[in-house]
Backbone:
């Protein structure tokens, strides 16, 4: 007879073994393959996978195959609570935006130090595309997501970040004048989006818009990133698309337009 809590322990072990299996696999695995590999009942395996997908630890693709989220493959980088829910809510929308625009889509949040933490991505299927690993952090002063996130942060926090960050000439296009950087950040708040055009990476451009939670707080930034020639050709369309989809993601997180902007 099982002791109290035995079933919970068994489920915990199965969750860990599913994650370990997916982390070892270089490609997405079907439910059938996972069941055959681990020897678990199909119904309970499906339910455990559904839970992992809902918490964004695992992604389910169009072919109903499962893969571990890139942020968790090599660890650390586990997320929980609001951040996990944000990723789970955003991923389907990001995939649809990627397919509609043909470009890579990122979701990023502001770290406590002001830099940008990449939370999720939907990589373009094009042979020539913009891409980045979900590891480390990116400077905020020269990236589209960073500028959006700074524009909705307390002024004293922004000032502290700019004083602390190394404002360096990353590319020939990087803006390093602090007065101009502040003007760009203010414009991002006024316009509802920010652009980085070859300022963080030569040949790479992108546009980002704010994502709000139910309280109206900006909790993330949605970003379309591409190679610069394609951005130049489709600039207005990409701006409109990222604003529209960031608004839709905010809506799915419970934000109402009548909520007071914070």
Residues:
């Amino acid at each position: 007879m099982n002791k109290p809590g035995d079933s919970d322990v068994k489920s915990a072990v199965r969750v860990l073994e599913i994650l370990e299996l997916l982390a070892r696999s270089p490609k997405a695995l079907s439910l059938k393959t996972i069941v055959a590999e681990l020897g678990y009942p199909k119904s309970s395996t499906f339910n455990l996978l559904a839970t992992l997908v809902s918490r964004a630890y695992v992604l389910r693709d169009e072919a109903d195959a499962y893969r571990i989220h890139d942020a968790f493959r090599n660890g650390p980088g586990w997320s929980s609570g609001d951040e996990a829910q944000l990723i789970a809510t955003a991923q389907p929308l990001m995939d649809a935006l990627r397919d509609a625009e043909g470009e890579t889509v990122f979701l990023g949040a502001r770290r406590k130090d002001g830099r940008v933490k990449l939370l999720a991505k939907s990589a373009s299927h094009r042979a020539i595309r913009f891409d980045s690993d979900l590891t480390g952090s990116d400077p905020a002063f020269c990236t589209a997501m960073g500028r959006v996130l700074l524009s909705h942060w307390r002024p004293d926090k922004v000032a502290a970040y700019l004083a602390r960050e190394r404002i360096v000439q990353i590319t020939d296009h990087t803006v390093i004048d602090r007065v101009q950087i502040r003007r760009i950040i203010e414009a991002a708040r006024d316009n509802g989006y920010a652009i980085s055009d070859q300022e963080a990476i030569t040949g790479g451009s992108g546009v980002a818009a704010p994502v709000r939670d139910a309280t109206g707080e900006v909790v993330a930034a949605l970003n379309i990133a591409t190679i610069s020639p394609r951005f130049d050709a489709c600039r207005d369309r990409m701006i409109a698309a990222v604003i529209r989809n960031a608004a839709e993601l905010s809506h799915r997180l419970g934000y109402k337009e009548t909520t007071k902007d914070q």
Observations:
- The radius of gyration is 20 Å.
